[in-house]
Amino acid sequence: SRKSLIERSLRMSSSSTSPEFSKDIVIVGAGIIGLSTAYYLSRNHDENINSITLVDRSGCIAPAASGKAGGFLALDWNDYSSVGPLTRRSFQLHADLAEELDGEKIQYRRLTCSSISVAETSRKKPNGRKLQGVEWADDNNTIDAESELQPGNIVGIRPLGDEDTIAQVHPKKLCDAMWKAIESNKNIETNLVEGTVKEKAEYDSSGKLIGAKLDDGTIINAGTILFSCGPWTEHGNCMVGVKYHSAIIPTPRVLSQSVFFDGYGDPEVYPRPDSTAYCCGFPDPPVRVTEFPGKEEVRDEKIEEIVNSVRNASGGINGALGTEPELKQSCYLPTTPDNLPLMGEIRDQKGCFIASGHGCWGILMGPATGEAMASLMTTGASSKYVKMESFRPERFENTPLW
């Protein structure tokens, strides 16, 4: 039985948590990582839990990058790195979530992806016939056998994945759907609280964790705390944020080919099933993030740079990305010095855990991270799919900071 497996894991793991520490859980940060953890706690471990409280500075679900990211999912792009198994498991879990949460509502679908090279200057046309396989291109930016090569003409295409390895989801819709599913579990009390939790948890005189303390002095009862604060993560003094701007541009039809352009600044385009395209690029240098979650400044010159870039690369004002954006936004991607996430129990803080720093793959890796953290927090062992040795939170304690 599941109960016997949990009991066996507790006996076998030297770092296992006591079941009493798992009854009331506080998750700091209401983004994809925190929500995924809450979802799998509710789905797989609800017999161990009385309550789940999400605490976020904004008081909202997915106020920052988890509500503003592109939602691009790739099965095998991380195969030769430490996050390869995490990525593959999470890609499958996204498909499962589409079944569980209604894929149409969260805009989950499979699609293709290509790297497309475009000319930036006029020059003699290359040999060969009209390029095929560029779904959204038309005569505005596709060369034929008779034309001289003009700026914006496509000069090369390299497939990066098909429907077996590429998918997408709308991150904000996914996060909202997960929270709704968590709230529907009648066996668990759920709360969403606006506030900031101090990095150091509250312990009693015997060293038992008693709760999370807010800036206003309020203590929320908790036997287990997860810090999933994205670029606002304080632990280890190592987290920075890379700011990306994005523009949502209407398209003349529903497109299903994600594009990484080579040329015009190399923008990225992720079309969505609602006849829009998520366009981004030109990231800022990494910084310590001081902006408030959900209220990040949107700089007009950055949006203009993105819009002009994708417009020039896609056939001009009459091309697929020639209209004005309907939404302009920005967010920070949480990044560590080695570009690997922090995941695990915090040293010298019994019952406190961290999961953050997934960079540009936060949406992709969110579900498998949540599944693994939910298991670790309640049984003392990660999921069978994810080994956490490379993600140890303490690995930067003696490392020079950014």
Brief characterization of the structure:
This protein is an alpha/beta fold. It is built from seven helices and 19 strands.
How does this structure look, described?
The protein is an alpha/beta fold and 402 residues long. Helix content is 23%, strand content 25%. It contains seven helices and 19 strands. Strands 6-5-14-15-16-13-17 form a seven-stranded mixed β-sheet, covered by helices on one side. Strands 8-2-1-12-19-18 form a six-stranded mixed β-sheet, with helices on one face. Strand 14 and strand 15 (268-272) form a beta hairpin. Helix 2 runs parallel beside helix 5 (171-183), helix 2 (32-44) packs across helix 7 (362-379) and helix 4 (84-101) crosses helix 7 (362-379).
Largest sheet: 7 strands, mixed
Structural class of the helices, strands and pairings?
Answer: alpha/beta
Rg result: 23 Å
Quantity of strands, as a count: 19
What is the CA–CA distance across the termini? 47 Å
Q: What is the overall silhouette?
A: elongated
Strand content: 15-25%
Strand order of the largest sheet: 6-5-14-15-16-13-17
Low-confidence spans:
1-21, 125-130, 139-146
Q: For the residues shown, what is the average pLDDT?
A: 87
Q: How many H/I helices?
A: 7
Helix content: 10-25%
Written as H for each helix and E for each strand, in order along the chain, the element string is HEHEHEHEEEEHEEEEEEEEEHEEEH
Descriptors:
19 strands; six-stranded mixed sheet; seven-stranded mixed sheet; 402 residues
